[in-house]
Amino acid sequence: MSVLTLVIEGQDVAGPAGRTILQVARENGVAIPTLCHLEGLSDVGACRLCMVEVEGQRKLLPACVTTIEEGMQVTVNSDRLTAYRRRIVELLFTERNHVCSVCVADRNCELQDLSVEFGVTHFDLPQLHPKATVDATHERFGIDHNRCILCTRCVRVCDEVEGAHTWDVMGRGTEARIITDLGTPWGQSATCTSCGKCVQVCPTGALFEKGRSVGEARRRRPYLPYLVAREGRAR
Amino acid sequence: MADNTIVIEPVTRIEGHAKITIQLDEAGKVADAHFHVTQFRGFERISQGRMLHEMPSLMARICGICPVSHMVASAKACDEILGVTVPPVGVLLRRVLNLAQIVQSHSLSFFYLSSPDLLLGFESDPALRNLVGVAQQAPELARDGVALRRFGQRIIERLGGKRVHPAWVVPGGVSRPLDAEQRASILEEIPDARARAHRTLEWFKANVATWADEAAHLGEFPSLHMGLVHESGNAAYSDGLLRVVDGNGWVLADGVDPRNYWDYLGETVEPWSYLKSTYFKPLGYPAGIYRVGPLARLNVVERLGTPAADAELAEYRERLGRYPSSSFHYHYARLIEIVHCIDMIDEILSDPDILNPHVRARAQVNRNEGVGVSEAPRGVLIHHYRVDDDGVVRWVNLVIATGHNNLAMNRSVLQTARHYVHGAEVKEGMLNRVEAVIRCYDPCLSCSTHAVGQMPLTVDIRDAEGALIRQVSR
Fold first, then answer.
1. Touching check for B317 and chain A: CB below 8 Å?
2. CA distance linking residue B173 with residue B3, whole number of Å
3. What spatial distance separates the first Cα and last Cα of chain B, rounded to whole Å?
4. For residues A204-221, average pLDDT
5. For chain A, how big is the Rg over CA atoms in Å?
6. CB neighbours of B271 closer than 8 A, spacing ≥ 6?
7. Inter-chain contact B53–A210, Cβ cutoff 8 Å?
8. Which residues of B touch A142 (CB under 8 A)?
9. Distance from CA of A51 to the nearest CA of B (A)
10. Which of A130, A125, A123, A121 is nearest to A97 (CA)?
11. B216 touching A, CB under 8 A?
């Protein structure tokens, strides 16, 4: 395996060919914000928070799905990138009905953490306030589409780790929704094994355990070492 | 003819948005007066489609003054839907939280909102008639107010983790047990709070004679009174059953399970307010006018249940009679309740079992309907939910303290206006008294209309044809 050398944030780094910019950056202590990425799952480049500047490229590139190349010069933090990332967080908040104060994942939410990191204290954009529903038909879990950011972690963990492929995405744009079994209610899903992995990987309060009150969502990370053990195999 | 309507808008030093309209007749005398709540919220609709376990925290957002009462009433409705028995220590901890909130809310009402009228005078300069004016003239009184409010808020923070809107009360109990350190800190502050509460009560009693005219004209009329009472006849704030007595002390309903509130309470909507009016169904509308809150609670209970407060209650009854009927006495009743609540907090937290970690019962949805009731600082609060089998809320009805008092507030405004307003030439002090009668009830309009914003009253004065002649706002 050939080893490639490149520069990330002014730091000379190296990594084996096939690694992504995100992997190499994190291995070298350079932080890049992400939402849809989760160690051990395949990457889809959906959230666009990990966009970086690569010298010689006019477009911004998503670090999670861009593999390193010899001699690359990567900028992770710039005013332009920060402004874009802040706007992405704002877009996610305004697209659906996120109300942290009454959310099961309050203080335990990756979207909320990012809003703090980027100082999203208010919205410049109008809120869409879509009509979104809660599917609580499953005996133990529920999904609140008001809080879903379409990261598809649930879709990937269900398919790649559990092997059930209960979850999928239906519709386009702001109409897109995560669905179970071609759109049947979760409680009637024939493929769901009730393993709860989807709930554990959800970055927000969209997927929750029933019976948990506000701020009581706990992501039981014992699932995650299993995912981390798969690191590198996902791609 | 000239316009004969006086409008006070906005009404100040109350919790929410309101206005008062005073209608004059041809001779310039007060013909009618209305208290309008001008804000609209809609929590009953917002909560449809939400998960049951979110309800206590969602409902707490109705109000920043009495979120705890909403949480407790909501959680009790949820308990019933889950079909669980809350562990005894969970019940006690919820009770302490609600008592602490009554202390802080009563302190806000008495010291911040009403003491400027009482200390500085109803006719005094409006620019100074506020807590700052109080602090200049009677720094000790102002300090006591600030300290008592902080005492209550700190207990809420220590128990729930946050001063306002703690997410600690959950269906089935509370989310965390009390730790020994927090208990010790609360108990340490009790002697100071108790001394401040008694000092304020003594000040009030020493001066009560100077407000004789207000006591006679700020909502002095017989009405029914409703409140929660323990089986023992003691006051109940988070538990207990409903009792209704009339102005002579006849018990019209007793031991009423809050689940059956609908058999006793009717609701009506008036075109001039977003606030629904409730009345005692057996007597019909509007004869079934009743009051809730401190005045009513002291009327319905036999005793409060703590010695010092009961001694004060005995003196109160000796001075005012067994069933005082002037809304002005809400202030006196409120101060006695502060004393009682502090003593109750002391009593409950001194029980060694209060640190028991078993504070929550867990279950899934076992019933589709539940009613929860608590005493908010300003009176009985009822939450009534229906959920589907999956635990999604489908229907909500909230009956709020200020709604119970709506008919009484309107009658009080009319009485006060009749006594103090003569013709369209209105002095500021008169308008202030019309506002002050509303403040007696300590209404919470944000709660009662289930609007966003601060708290400003308007008084409209209209002539016999309904044309606006004068509007006073701040």
1. no
2. 57
3. 27
4. 90
5. 18
6. none
7. yes
8. 51, 390-391
9. 35
10. A130
11. no
Question: Distance between CA B427 and CA A230 in Å, rounded?
Answer: 80
Complete edge-to-edge strand list for the sheet that includes strand B393-399: B369-376, B379-387, B393-399
Is the Cβ of B138 closer than 8 Å to some Cβ of chain A? no
B450 confidence band (pLDDT: 50, 70, 90): very low
The 10s digit of each residue's pLDDT in B370-402 is 999 999 999 999 999 999 999 999 999 988 888
Per-residue pLDDT, B446: 52
How does the average pLDDT of chain B come out, rounded? 89
Q: What is the mean pLDDT of residues B12-32?
A: 80
B49 at interface of A, judged by CB pairs closer than 8 A: yes
Question: Residue A58's CB: how many other CB atoms inside 10 A?
Answer: 6
Residue whose pair of structure tokens reads 């309903």 in the numeric block: B253
| Separation of CA B113 from chain center | 13
Chain B residues whose beta carbon lies within 8 Å of the beta carbon of residue A211: 53, 362-364
Identity of the residue in A136, A211, A213 whose CB atom sits nearest the CB atom of B392: A136
**Distance (Å, rounded) from C-alpha A193 to C-alpha A164?**
7
Secondary structure of residue B131 in the 3-state scheme = helix
Domain segments of chain B: what residues?
Answer: 5-39+404-472, 222-324
pTM here is 0.90
DSSP class of residue A20 equals: B
- Number of Cβ within 10 Å of residue B422's Cβ equals 16
Sequence-distant (≥ 6) Cβ neighbours of residue A94 within 8 angstroms: A123, A125, A126, A127, A128
Please answer whether residues B65 and B15 qualify as being in contact, where contact means their C-beta atoms are separated by less than 8 angstroms.
yes
For A186, name the nearest residue in chain B, comparing CA atoms only.
B390
The rounded distance, in Å, linking the Cα atoms of A39 and A22 is: 11
Q: Is B452 part of the contact surface with chain A (CB cutoff 8 Å)? A: no
Tokens linked to B92: 């006690």
**Which two tokens mark B47?**
């909560």
Sorted by where each starts, the structural domains of chain A and their CATH numbers stand as: 3-77 (3.10.20.740), 102-229 (3.30.70.20)
Partner-chain contact A136 B167, CB within 8 Å: no
